[in-house]
Amino acid sequence: MLVSALCVPVLAQLMPNVAELRYQGRRSGRRIALPVACARIGDTVVVRVARAESKTWWRNFTTPHPASIRRDGRWVNGMAHVAYPGTLEHEELAAYYQQILTHCEVPVADPLVVIELPPHTKDTSGLRHQSPRDGLWRRWTMTVTAGEAVGFTAPALVGVLVRDAAPATAAAALLAAGLWEGTVLGAAQARVLVPVVPGLRGRSWITATVLGSMVAWSIALVAMTVGDSVAHGPAAVSVPLTILGAVSLLLSIGIAQWIVLRPLVTRAYRWIAATAAGWLGGLAAFVALTSPLWQPGQPFGLVVVIGIAGGLVMAAVMAAVTGWFLVAILATTSAAPAAPKNTR
């Protein structure tokens, strides 16, 4: 105990987000001190138990048990319990933990020891403490811009490669590229959304994004195939069809994602309008940049570079617009609290 009392505080000072945990062993009755990696979330301190199968200390908290935690010489007492993998509590707290300690990855099999502090305990402990929604617009814009930019490289490259191919071949290749784009975009969005929307599963979000993307690409390919015929037809037919196709394209991803958000977010239907506005702005930016630059007879490499540059601008505009809407939507929903106060 004496060695721990001397060494643990030193270690806690040298390593960020390492604190000293003390408790009394249930069976031995001994006072135990050890360093732990943790993050503070409101009135809760979350301790990750790495390689739990080789450790026993955390089993003292299989039922609620008193514990104390110290940082910068200040002790705070609370009640601790274990959040087990596979439970909703574990999923939510692991997401918050991951958001705060971005350099750490929390394996789904790691238990968490949850120390509930007295309500409104002032945080002077030095532990990193933030709401997962802090800087949400910036994180969303940067992450989604990168994801969509990477995802769009496939359609940009494939579009140039198949411009002289048979229609069926070109359509199949572009749909495959659209599948890649939807997967990467969905993964990027899920990375930001999962920590701030409790209950949201990344796999469900990615699947919905892929399905919406495939619908959008299918509509675009139909428009490319029959667009000239429709444009030269009667206005009474061509105008409604054009409007219907454009609206369906803009709404496809939003509707697919709304199905996933609906049980989790208040008035989730607003996300449909948000994605439509984002994609409308992004596509307009893409056309505005690439139309003057693309010219007949240009080298293959230049055409691809222009397309990728247009995709980057499109991604940035879409991400910025949808991010603004996302912040507004989550600010008025009761489904995603800034930090849990009683997680049991």
Descriptive notes:
The structure is a single chain. It contains 8 helices and 6 strands; from the N terminus they run H-E-E-E-E-E-H-E-H-H-H-H-H-H. Helix 4 (167-193) packs antiparallel against helix 5 (202-231) and helix 5 (202-231) packs antiparallel against helix 6 (235-261). With 344 residues, the chain is an alpha+beta fold. Strand 2 and strand 3 form a beta hairpin. The chain has a 6-stranded antiparallel barrel with strand order 1-2-3-6-5-4. Residues 1-15, 123-132 and 334-344 have low confidence and may be disordered. It is elongated, with a radius of gyration of 26 Å. It folds into 2 domains: 7-116, Roll (Pnp Oxidase, Chain A), CATH 2.30.110.10; 136-331, no CATH class. It has helices at 2-14, 88-100, 136-161, 167-193, 202-231, 235-261, 270-293, 300-331; strands at residues 18-24, 31-41, 44-48, 65-71, 74-83, 112-116. Keywords: Membrane, Transmembrane, Transmembrane helix. It comes from Nocardia rhizosphaerihabitans. InterPro entries: Split_barrel_FMN-bd (IPR012349). This is DUF385 domain-containing protein.
Please tell me what the overall shape is: elongated
Strand order of the largest sheet: 1-2-3-6-5-4
Q: What is the N-to-C succession of helices and strands?
A: HEEEEEHEHHHHHH
Structural class: alpha+beta
Distance between the termini: 31 Å
Percent strand equals 5-15%
| Count of helical regions | 8
Q: Would you tell me the overall average pLDDT?
A: 78
Low-confidence stretches: 1-15, 123-132, 334-344
Question: What can be said about the biggest beta sheet?
Answer: 6 strands, antiparallel, barrel
| Cα-atom radius of gyration | 26 Å
